[in-house]
């Protein structure tokens, strides 16, 4: 995929679970899944980095917050994967492809998410809101 | 009509299929799925009308080229019901778009814009998108 896959005007409320399936590119170092209000207001920035064997999460509210690192990189370039993100009042629960769950605080305190983007070496094949 | 989800940079290529599933509102009057390059260049404006503009249970299709609407095409098939989940699958080639309706029947709409890729999807009206898949 060239360019940035982007969804605006999404209606993701508290309690909603987003499932994203796709294929990680063969030759990629990293990819990003962003959820928030728009490009400069991100409630969850989810960034696996293969070169550093880590997953970096952060929030963006005009400026970046404090990075949170999770050294549970259970997937690799070239693989088909599924991520599940549950949006709750206090935190995001992110289920990784192997079932491991990580959390990231809902720092911005929003109760509605309208923006999703996917960048870098991840070719999205489906997304689902439940 | 209320604007719904908008997706960009889909990069859907000829032969691939876009599957959209969603919920039709219980009091639905009409909904729209627009597919194309952007909001002014729409190769398929897919508009099931339950009861609006004098149309009852009719699918109206059109295209928009540089902001200008083309000629409407109407389909008599109408396998949609208010309050139900509905799924449509859309694929395209040089000549036509092929729309597969929830009952499995298909119809074609001419690919008037000759787009090589579909990058834009927008929903409007009484339809809440739950799932989008690229196949």
TrEMBL record, chain A:
Q: Which InterPro entries match?
A: ConA-like_dom_sf, Galectin-like, Galectin_CRD
UniProt domain Galectin: residue ranges: 4-130
User: A GO molecular function for this record?
Assistant: carbohydrate binding
Which first-to-last residue range defines the signal peptide?
Answer: none
Question: Does the keyword ATP-binding belong to this entry?
Answer: no
| Residues that span the membrane, as ranges | none
Out of the domains of life, which is the source? Answer: Eukaryota
UniProt keyword annotations, A-Z: Lectin
Name of this protein: Galectin
The species is: Hipposideros armiger (Great Himalayan leaf-nosed bat)
The opening ranks of the lineage are: Eukaryota, Metazoa, Chordata, Craniata, Vertebrata
Q: Which gene encodes it?
A: LGALS2
UniProtKB/TrEMBL annotation, chain B:
State the SUPFAM superfamilies in the record.
Concanavalin A-like lectins/glucanases
Q: Does the keyword Cell wall biogenesis/degradation apply?
A: no
Q: Which GO terms describe its cellular component?
A: extracellular space
The record's section on InterPro entries has: ConA-like_dom_sf, Galectin-like, Galectin_CRD
Q: Where in this chain does the record put each Galectin domain?
A: 4-135
What GO molecular function annotation could you give as one example from this UniProt entry?
A: laminin binding
Does the record carry Lipid metabolism as a key word? no
| Superkingdom of origin | Eukaryota
Q: Which UniProt keywords apply?
A: Lectin
Q: Which Pfam families match?
A: Gal-bind_lectin
Query: What does the subunit comment say?
Result: Homodimer. Binds LGALS3BP. Interacts with CD2, CD3, CD4, CD6, CD7, CD43, ALCAM and CD45. Interacts with laminin (via poly-N-acetyllactosamine). Interacts with SUSD2. Interacts with cargo receptor TMED10; the interaction mediates the translocation from the cytoplasm into the ERGIC (endoplasmic reticulum-Golgi intermediate compartment) and thereby secretion.
Q: What is this protein called?
A: Galectin
Q: Which organism is it from?
A: Hipposideros armiger (Great Himalayan leaf-nosed bat)
Query: Lineage in the entry?
Result: Eukaryota, Metazoa, Chordata, Craniata, Vertebrata
